[in-house]
Design a protein that fits this description.
The protein is α+β, with helices and mostly antiparallel strands and 206 residues long. The chain has one domain: Protein Transport Mog1p, Chain A, CATH 3.40.1000. The protein has four helices and ten strands, in the order αββββββααββββα. It has an eight-stranded mixed beta sheet, with helices on both faces. The chain has a two-stranded antiparallel ribbon with strand order 2-3. A hairpin with a 5-residue loop joins strand 5 and strand 6. The chain starts with a helix and ends with a helix.
Length: 206
């Protein structure tokens, strides 16, 4: 598929953290208050299932979205990548590999620590060329809990919407929604992208 080579280039795939990574402890200025959202998707969803390798989490793709095979180029921790029909958005599901350092961070800081760890991975991979957009947001959807954050590039444009969560068996996950500009087609607005992103995480069951 001719579009795949462009997806390889722009895909913000995570890398494994080494044990010496230092993540800052919580600071109130970095965190919004917890917000409660409807556990129901805002947009139509398909019956295409996303399932982790361990089988401890599932999700569904938006209507008409489909998987792309980028696993020869992707991190081994990525287990699903899908795009919309216009090739203007892609969603990446990643299993954040457990380690003693990450376990310690999550034990001390909970999902906020996991979110900081997740952002640090993106920051390290891009040599510091991305920044946190706004603050980390604790999102509750019914009994499910996530921490959501945005990433901006050097131009200040939103480059990624990300949410992290922990499954019932203690596995760590990240779901990221990224715009793709290589087709020249209009990218969905920030409001539309947010609705798509929240609809995807609303379908997550862990």
């Amino acid at each position: 598929m001719k579009h795949l080579k462009y997806i390889y280039i722009i895909l913000l795939l995570p890398v494994i953290l080494n044990s010496c990574l230092i993540v800052k402890y919580p600071e109130s200025k970095e965190v919004h208050s917890t917000i409660s959202l409807s556990p129901k998707p805002e947009i139509p969803m398909s019956d295409i299932l996303v399932r982790s390798k361990q089988g401890d989490m599932i999700a569904f793709l938006p209507k008409d979205w489909f998987y792309v095979n980028v696993f020869e180029k992707a991190s081994a921790d990525v287990f699903a990548v899908a795009v919309n029909p216009e090739y203007t958005l892609q969603v990446v599901f990643t299993n954040i590999k457990k380690s003693e350092s990450i376990d310690n961070i999550v034990a001390k800081e909970g999902l906020l620590g996991l979110a900081r760890t997740s952002f640090a991975r993106h920051e390290r991979r891009t040599a510091g060329s991305v920044k946190l957009e706004g603050k980390y947001i604790i999102v509750e959807m019914g009994i499910k809990k996530f921490v959501k954050y945005g990433i901006t590039n050097s131009s200040g444009i939103t480059a990624c919407l990300t949410a992290v969560f922990q499954s019932e068996i203690g596995q760590y996950y990240e779901v990221a929604l990224l715009p793709m500009a290589f087709t020249g087609r209009p990218i969905p607005t920030a409001k539309e992208t947010e609705a798509i992103f929240l609809s995807i995480i609303a379908t997550i069951d862990y």
